[in-house]
Amino acid sequence: MKLVILGPPGSGKGTVSEQLEREFHFLHVSAGELLRNEAAQKTEEGQKINALITVGKLVPPEIIVALVKEKVKSKRKYILDGFPRSVDQAEMIKDLSIDKVLYLDVPDELLVERFTGRRVCKQGHHSYHLKYLPPKKAGICDYDGSPLLQRSDDTPKAIKERLRIFHSETKPVIEYYRKKGLLMKIDGSPLPEIVAQNVKEILQKLDPKL
Ligand code: AMP
């Protein structure tokens, strides 16, 4: 099964994807994580990506499409987290033949509180929330023991831009997949564990052998 998970920044895409990775062994491909890894390389391209992420803008489609395609090459069970984020990206991955698109619907008002409490582990793969999804030991990742950090683009200015881009660029992708009959809209407002549980039940109904 090939899945895409979309939603505004802070909607819980990463948390739901991590659960699907742990329970059903989906390969979790986070577009943001792939780009942050690239940005950490001190190459010219890495610096260009870093500058765009810091201000909350999308990186050029050919860069992210190439990174994702490389990652999923010859794989059949994966979840693309935060990708595609624009209609041109969606057109560029038609050949992947995505089965379902999960859309985590969360009103903008709820997102602001989620951002302020969000923490990610230093390895960059596991996400937490100080109030809604705290780690077992304060400041330490449950899974890899690395310290928890606040993302450099979780600043009020970058968040505003990321939300603006979600509405202008990514909402049309949601409509694009709705027209193709692939969209599943999920209420992303409840606590992350509840949303993840709801998603698991929906997927198990689609494919009981998951
Ligand atoms: P995320 O971790 O999903 O919140 O993504 C963090 C940042 O990475 C975004 O604000 C963008 O700058 C960049 N990014 C993530 N996914 C994409 C994508 N599909 N296309 C372009 N830029 C992206």
Order of the strands making up the biggest sheet? 2-3-1-4-8
**Name of the CATH class:** Alpha Beta
The CATH homologous superfamily name equals P-loop containing nucleotide triphosphate hydrolases
The percent range for strand residues is 15-25%
Bound molecules: adenosine monophosphate
Please provide the count of β strands: 8
Rg on CA atoms, Å: 16 Å
In the CATH hierarchy, the third-tier topology is known as Rossmann fold
- The secondary-structure element order is EHEHHHEHEHEEEHEH
What is the number of domains?
A: 1
Counted by DSSP, the helix tally is 8
Largest sheet composition: 5 strands, parallel
Distance from first to last alpha carbon: 9 Å
Can you give a write-up of this model?
- The chain has one domain (2-107, 155-206): P-loop containing nucleotide triphosphate hydrolases (Rossmann fold, 3-Layer(aba) Sandwich), CATH 3.40.50.300.
- It has eight helices and eight strands, in the order βαβαααβαβαβββαβα.
- With 210 residues, it is of the alpha/beta class.
- It starts with a strand and ends with a helix.
- A hairpin with a 5-residue loop joins strand 5 (118-121) and strand 6 (127-129).
- The strands form two sheets. The protein has a five-stranded parallel beta sheet with strand order 2-3-1-4-8, with helices on both faces. Strands 6-5-7 form a three-stranded antiparallel beta sheet.
- The protein has helices at 13-24, 31-40, 44-55, 61-72, 87-92, 108-117, 156-179, 192-206; strands at residues 2-6, 27-30, 78-81, 100-105, 118-121, 127-129, 148-149, 183-187.
- Helix 2 packs across helix 3.
- The protein binds adenosine monophosphate.
